[in-house]
Structure to design on (372 residues):
């Protein structure tokens, strides 16, 4: 333990400009916004490809493909913009851990920017040129989606590595090249697949929202979107439950027990997440059978929002459980900057509202003015 602790850099001695719990709260809130945008992007890309290559009617499949593809250049910058805030909050609270893991995997971490730019260009190409060259557009979108998949995998490596200081010494002293990943971590693959399944599920909800926007203008096409997106949501959520159980079992016993009764809050959130997912699957199934667009586009997303918030809090509790031997929030010095905090809160709220308006206007076909 002494050797491991000596490898952890000292925390920033500057006092926090607000209480610790404020940063934790905003870390969770901004992560929720980031993960929703990311899921729409990655899940949307996967389902666009599935609609193109698996549709029985090629014309309908191509229409869904292009409709989703035109939205991806919106969701990628939203993912990046909304990801900056939680990344900054992580650096403020857990900087010495995240900094070290980033150094250990420095070159793959630098590659994230390169891969992101290439994926961005691919999304834009498909959005603007996909209708003229459907065959090439499918390959380009597949490449960009794979790059986003790889970026997510690199993030999972960094996050899991930042939470396991016991692995740092062996990796660094074996090689200081900066090419280390965390591939020997038992939770890495289940954790990443859990996020990937969630992305496909949220991608299904994106199609449901698109169905809602088209419901009065083109009922046949809207019905196609509803059934395709609803089924994708249900199957992906079922897979997420299975992978989530595998992820839970793969955790070290001490961490697993946090969600198995040792921590009442964590255990309650786990139950909320599982039950919420089951209820959402049931409601979506009923909505598809009755073609109840209101239930699919309003009630199911409301339940999913509760599940996402619960899972995000659980993620934070798990990180603190991993870092408990090394991380002590009570040691933070706090000097609240009351003159700046209200300004930050106002700008944050305005930014979230602006993002929601942007998605409503540009992220759905025809925008808000055509939805009625």
């Amino acid at each position: 333990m002494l050797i491991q602790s000596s490898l952890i850099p000292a925390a920033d001695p500057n006092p926090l400009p607000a209480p610790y719990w404020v940063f934790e709260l905003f870390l969770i809130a901004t992560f929720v916004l980031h993960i929703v945008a990311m899921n729409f992007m990655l899940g949307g890309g996967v389902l666009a490809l599935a609609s193109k290559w698996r549709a029985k009617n090629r014309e309908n499949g191509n229409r869904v493909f292009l409709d989703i593809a035109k939205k991806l250049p919106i969701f990628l910058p939203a993912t990046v913009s909304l990801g900056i805030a939680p990344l900054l909050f992580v650096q403020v609270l857990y900087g010495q851990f995240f900094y070290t893991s980033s150094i250990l995997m420095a070159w793959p971490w630098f590659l994230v920017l390169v891969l992101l730019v290439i994926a961005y260009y691919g999304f834009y190409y498909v959005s603007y040129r996909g209708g003229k060259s459907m065959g090439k557009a499918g390959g380009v979108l597949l490449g960009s989606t794979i790059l986003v998949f790889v970026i997510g995998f690199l993030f999972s490596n960094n996050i899991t590595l930042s939470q396991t200081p016991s692995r740092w010494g062996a990796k660094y002293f074996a090689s200081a090249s900066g090419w280390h990943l965390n591939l020997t971590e038992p939770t890495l693959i289940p954790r990443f697949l859990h996020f990937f399944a969630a992305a496909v599920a949220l991608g299904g909800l994106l199609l449901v929202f698109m169905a809602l926007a088209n419901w009065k203008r083109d009922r046949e096409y809207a019905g196609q979107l509803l059934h395709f997106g609803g089924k994708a949501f249900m199957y992906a959520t079922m897979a997420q439950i299975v992978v989530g159980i595998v992820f839970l079992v793969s955790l070290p016993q001490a961490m697993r027990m946090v969600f198995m009764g040792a921590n009442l809050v964590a255990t309650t959130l786990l139950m909320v997440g599982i039950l919420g997912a089951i209820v959402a699957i049931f409601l979506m199934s009923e909505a598809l059978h009755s073609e109840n667009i209101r239930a699919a586009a309003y009630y199911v997303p409301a339940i999913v929002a509760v599940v996402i918030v619960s899972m995000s809090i659980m993620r934070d509790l798990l990180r603190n459980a991993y870092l408990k031997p090394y991380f002590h929030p009570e040691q933070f010095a706090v000097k609240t900057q009351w003159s700046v905090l209200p300004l930050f809160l106002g700008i944050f709220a305005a930014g979230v509202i602006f993002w929601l308006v942007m998605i409503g206007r540009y992220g759905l076909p025809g925008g808000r003015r055509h939805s009625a």
